[in-house]
Amino acid sequence: MNTAFQRLQRDRRGELLAAWQQHLAATFDRHHPHPPSLDVQREVLFDALLNTLTSGAPEDDFRLDPETDLARHLNRLIAEQARQLANPSDTIGALLALKQLVARALIDTNPQTPVIEDLLWLDRVFDGLSLFAFKSFVDIRERLIAEQSLSLLELSTPVLRVWSQVLLLPLVGVIDTQRARQITERLLEAIALHEARVTILDLTGVPVLDTSVAQHLMKTIDAARLLGSRVVMTGISPEGAQTLTKLGIRFADVISRATLRAGLAEALLLIDRRIAPIDEARPS
Amino acid sequence: MRIPILQLDRILLVSIQVDLTDNDAMQFQSDLVERVAAIEALGVAIDITALDVVDSYMARVINDTANMVRLLGAEVVICGIQPFVALTLIEMGRGLLGADCAFNLGQALEMLKGRIAKRGDTRFVGDEDV
Fold first, then answer.
1. How many helices (H) and strands (E) does chain A have?
2. Residue B101 DSSP code
3. Which residue, A47, A89, A114, B58, shows the most beta carbons closer than 10 Å to its own?
4. How large is the ipTM?
5. Domain of residue B98, CATH code
6. Does A250 contact B67 at a Cβ distance shorter than 8 Å?
7. Does A145 share its domain with A173?
């Protein structure tokens, strides 16, 4: 039990909380939306923190157990702020501001007795809290990023059926090994499903064509050919063509066209179809 | 020295008349591919009538250029290889020039036109730019 903090909690709880809320309103909350639930959350956190401070002896070591109330409240508050894409320094800054307030109050309420041990204890608690807060902030952000890149992966490799037996695979963005494998898998499934005779591979959205990308492409093309689908490549940039050739990469038996439009025409020819004006097609 | 690139509808004509240095070759290749991409060329004829000697480097430059152009979706024909040049190329190794060859520019153009006529994108009606 810690008497100095007990006295503080008994006499000056309301005053401290008000001061903290006021400080936050003046700094952090000015730039961010401020839902009313936030005040309640902060108050709960504040009480949990004071309880922790009073329950420990000044010479105790402090380590924040993630199962405690304090850790849970802190986590919830941080999760909210991380999701609002707040600056991590604001979150930690709010904690450190509270530390200043408590330290000042501690010195004021005990004018005669030395409070150095108590201050050190306070310091240790807040250090532990800050570390914990920082870690969980980063964890939450990283989870967010992982989720987003996963959804990006899902988004960016559609296999489109543009005509019966003609598939279009528009490649957009950087192609790494993982994506390349996924692209190949998806494409082969689609070829088998639709019995595609022609596959158009559109590279307009691929910024860099280098050895690894070219190798992945070759594998995809070879696999498609094994299933019996002709491959038409479209949209290679002049720079891309130069790089591929200088790297000594030969796409044998692959039809290459400048634009998707030309590639589509080629694909239609390969399946003996053509697009005709409406008048011509209409039975007279 | 920059090699002029002539345009005949959507066919490009280039004539290499001197031995190219490394820099010339790179310049020539990038000029040509930029041009092919810019006009969405359907065919390219590379004329080397004026070359009396084609070493392995020149052969590679020509071959590479043909491959680049093909990747950009145009047909390529090389024309005007001198008998003596053909002999040395064969002696240096077959397949040094992978692209199709024609006797002279006229035949090259005919060959290009024939191949272009068979392509899907030129047989499309109603898709012409206005």
1. 10, 5
2. E
3. B58
4. 0.79
5. 3.30.750.24
6. yes
7. no
